[in-house]
């Protein structure tokens, strides 16, 4: 049923009309979040009495929509021409329909993909987490932390094709600009980078796969050393590049091995090799 989104939404709407079913409300709220309608998603979650701390129901949706529940500021005065260029007055066009900028919604789009992984790819996601932790020589306690990390989600989204599957199923629900951005993200590959320069909130990296240099802005808390190497998947957001899972330090002795594994594209092998990057020397 979930493969046929329109039929799924119709069935869920019938369910919530007849009964206060938390699961149905939570699923409908997820579809509303995919559409970018944070207010409707929140209404559905409240109607279904879905708590924000319940990961089995709508906890993930609550976390997504919280930064977007307050509408953006008005773009013009009521009687001014609408900034969209329609020729109509603002009050008759986009007043009350303002949307947060794509730069702000990009992180939300990424979290939508992560939610899809949690709903539809948990077994594969867990296998990647176990492969990484085993290669790192970690414990079951470490696995419980790693399985919810941004790195494992990003591996599932990229190496296991989770984000492509999300886009195939939810493409028609996404706002047009998010749909275009998501299509660009499908072209972004994971790679190994050399750290050329660092600043207070920026990095200059060279992609060792194609020898292309890039500058990364708005980097917080970076402790990377010049001359070192990191693994990252850089996603375009406007004129910027963003790595939503951060940067994994790669020992110099493993740079070529990781490049080869990334080129082969086997998800488990990538997870194991990245796990070895975290393994202690002795």
Principal-axis shape: globular
How many β strands by DSSP?
A: 7
Estimated share of beta-strand residues = 5-15%
Helix content: 40-55%
Q: How far is the first residue's CA from the last residue's CA? A: 51 Å
The major pleated sheet works out as: 5 strands, antiparallel
Low-confidence stretches: none
**Structural class, please?**
alpha+beta
Number of helices: 12
Structure description:
The chain has 282 residues and is an alpha+beta fold. Helices cover 48% and strands 11% of the residues. The chain has helices spanning 5-18, 22-34, 38-47, 59-65, 102-120, 122-135, 140-146, 150-158, 162-170, 176-185, 255-264, 267-278, and strands at 191-198, 203-207, 212-216, 229-232, 235-237, 240-242, 248-249. The strands form two sheets. Strands 3-2-1-4-7 form a five-stranded antiparallel beta sheet. A two-stranded antiparallel ribbon has the order 5-6. A hairpin with a 2-residue loop joins strand 5 and strand 6 (240-242). Helix 5 crosses helix 10. It is globular. The termini are far apart. The mean pLDDT is 88.
């Amino acid at each position: 049923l979930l493969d046929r989104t329109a039929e799924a939404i119709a069935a869920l709407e019938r369910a919530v009309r007849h009964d206060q079913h938390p699961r149905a409300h939570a699923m409908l709220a997820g579809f509303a979040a995919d559409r970018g309608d944070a207010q409707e998603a929140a209404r559905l979650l409240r109607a279904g009495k879905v708590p924000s701390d319940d990961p089995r129901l709508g906890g993930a949706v609550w976390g997504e929509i919280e930064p977007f529940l307050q509408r953006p500021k008005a773009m013009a005065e009521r009687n001014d021409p609408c900034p969209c260029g329609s020729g109509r007055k603002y009050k008759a066009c986009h007043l009350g329909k303002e949307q947060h900028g794509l730069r702000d919604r990009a992180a939300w789009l990424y979290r939508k993909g992560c939610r899809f992984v949690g709903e539809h790819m948990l077994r594969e996601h867990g296998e990647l987490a176990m492969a990484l932790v085993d290669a790192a020589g970690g414990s079951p306690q470490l696995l419980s932390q790693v399985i919810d990390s941004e790195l494992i989600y990003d591996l599932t989204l990229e190496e296991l094709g989770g984000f492509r599957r999300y886009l195939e199923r939810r493409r028609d629900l996404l706002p047009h600009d998010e749909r275009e951005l998501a299509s660009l993200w499908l072209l972004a590959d994971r790679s190994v980078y050399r750290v050329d320069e660092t600043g207070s909130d920026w990095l200059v990296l060279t992609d060792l796969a194609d020898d292309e240099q890039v500058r990364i802005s708005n980097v917080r808390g970076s402790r990377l050393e010049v001359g070192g190497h990191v693994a990252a998947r850089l996603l375009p957001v406007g004129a910027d590049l963003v790595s939503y899972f951060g940067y994994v330090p790669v020992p110099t002795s493993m740079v070529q091995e990781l490049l080869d594994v990334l080129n082969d594209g086997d998800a488990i092998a990538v997870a194991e090799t990245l796990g070895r990057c975290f393994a202690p020397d002795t």
